[in-house]
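INTERNAL TRANSFER SHEET
From: sequence group
To: structure group
Subject: UV-B-induced protein

Please process the attached sequence and return the structure record in the designated field. Keep the field labels unchanged so the import script can parse them.
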Amino acid sequence: MGLGGRRGMVVKASSSPDSAEPSAQIAPLRMESPIGQFLSQILISHPHLVPAAVEQQLEQLQTDRDTDEKKEEPSASGTDLVLYRRIAEVKASERKRALEEILYALVVQKFMDANISLVPAITSSADPSGRVDTWPSQEDKLEQIHSAEAHEMIQNHLALILGNRSGESTSVAQISKLRVGQVYAASVMYGYFLRRVDQRFQLERTMKVLPSASDGDKSSIEQTVGDDTRPSGLGDSYQAASSHPEVSSWSGGISPGGFGSGIKPSRLRTYVMSFDGETLQRYASIRSKEAVGIIEKHTEALFGRPEIAITPQGTVDSSNDELIKISFGGLKRLVLEAVTFGSFLWDVESFVDSRYHFVMN
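Return from structure group:
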């Protein structure tokens, strides 16, 4: 498959039987659109060419979108108009799906650049102990990706989830698979939020326009944070951002030691505390439907579709939910990967939007 770019570059990927084998899968989610399958082949054979291939695909998507926007609706009503609008909806849906898989391919490529393998789909374990976390930890690699300030926040996030068991990497617990999936998705969103505020923090620090408390000495930070170590310790502004992934209910039931155990003040956390409610709400929200879609699909590919039902009383019945055995080290690995996935998702969403505008204000 050959595609021309505006700089005369051509990226080619040859189809081979091996590329379709499960052993060649490098991420839990299988991409299904023609663009996604094309990028999957490049990820396996020549991952360094993915950004160039993506740029070519985005140019074509932009051309297609421009062409569709210039078309005029039929003046006549009735069947022709209904058919025209239906075709437009299908094309828009196909572009959305292609964008989701472009984002996913770029995120996977960033993991490959960092020499980090994504956790495979979590299924019934073949391990004699029943543990599902047979993957390598790679904690050092995952932690090195983030700035020192973001790393402090990630450690606080881990403390919220693991409580006083964060140091017991080999201890095994039997946990709801649905709950672990919720924690993973929440941690992806937290990583997205964290990269977003950290970029602003680093920029303002470079420009020397940080609020004094955000870049002050330890005493001023402790005075600002105070003794409030609850997940809602950022005050009313934090509570206003109901979508913020550090809300304790999102990961309820995971921490044996209770939430907030081990939370420490940090410059970035203090900086976030200076946001008003509206700003925090904006930064805690995922900007595009495509990014939301890929978080949902990646999490479902990793943990499977949960079997839940709504009771006549309107509550969630998760009695059929599968329980899995996982070590606290394995859970930490999942959370670190999820936070990093969210950070990468922010980066690639910004990259793609600069070439093909799809993020709504």
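Handover comment: The chain has two domains: 2-113, 139-346. The chain has twelve helices and six strands.
Transfer complete.
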